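Submission checklist for the structure archive. All mandatory fields must be present; incomplete records are returned to the submitter.

[x] Identifier: Hippurate hydrolase
[x] Organism: Sagittula marina
[x] Residue count: 396
[x] Sequence attached
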Amino acid sequence: MPLITPDTLRDDTDFIARLTELRQDIHRHPETAFEEHRTSDIVAARLTEIGIEIHRGLGGTGVVGTLKGKRPGQRVIALRADMDALFIEEQTGLPYASEVPGKMHACGHDGHTTMLLGAAEKLAADPDFAGTVHFIFQPAEEGLGGARVMIEDGLFDLFPCDAVYGVHNGPKEPLGSVQTRTGAFMAAGDTWEVIFEGTGGHGAMPHAATDPTVAAGQFIAALSQIISRKVPATESAVISVGHIAAGDYHSPNIIPSQVVVRGTARSYKPEIRDMLENAIGIFAESCAAPHGATARLIYTRRYPPLINSAEEVQHAVAAASQTVGAEAVNPKAPPAGGSEDFSFMLEKVPGAYVMIGNGDGPDAAFVHTPKYDFNDALTPIGVAYWVNLVQAELGG
């Protein structure tokens, strides 16, 4: 199959119209982590219709399609798209807005699924490559680690691969621009919780109480010192507080006996990750002890850092350059602070993850907000990238 361009795909108006209708239908019916039953059924039906062998059930709702090239070859690659939505009330006012209260596709996974299905259709129509392609449609990327669950269910035992690739849309970035890098591209994403405990007491008599609020306040103020004094200036890390809970709104005259502070920690290297966990606990205890309070840390390692492999980045950059032009591709993009559970796949198999600009300019809504929408103009670009990546890997 020759290399294709987004313009070539746009000329196939029926193909693009079908993909747009599909994307907007998935958007209208969002399904959150491990509940992607309708979406999974659509994916399985589409793959079967175009003659691709499917396997269902990995990660509960995951679907894997397998397509063998018509030329002999032993190399096997996998292309992955995520399917799940988020718990957000949509506020776009679009005619295809979510029909499910409290849920919406606020991260573009509806578009990711559609782009990979479009690529599967084009490749199945002319599998002129040497080797095998697995199309992985994954549940539960948003926080619950669907990639990890698929792996634990035997993904790479059943479908061993030489390389695995992923794509995400990049809101606000120029439409079709591509960013990637070798090495750490996205951060490890961890959740931490510190529980400060004292006796509590009457607000008018704090001298008779052990007050955990003072300890918690000093801890929150001190957290930034972990980054400024424990992380080398040449490295990057983030600690943020996202939740504080204490006392009762109706009882402002009562010093609470417990304060819970929760947040996120982001890092790119194992040693920095270890340090953050250790330092958060030490800082919490050191803030609690002078006040007679106690502090207990619960640190949960969620997603590891996303590490791209050099060889696979070269293939991704070549395919992206063929698709949108080399001037629109940045192979040395700075690391992103977000996390992605595609990182679990990259721990098992070498591969590359890229961000493709979703366009709509600097005023466009960002992901994970109630007014975000995937840009359907990105669909032919994403399809072309996937097809050209298969040619870059297996078309020789």
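[x] Structure attached
Curator remark: The longest helix spans residues 212-230. DSSP finds eleven helices and 16 strands in the chain.
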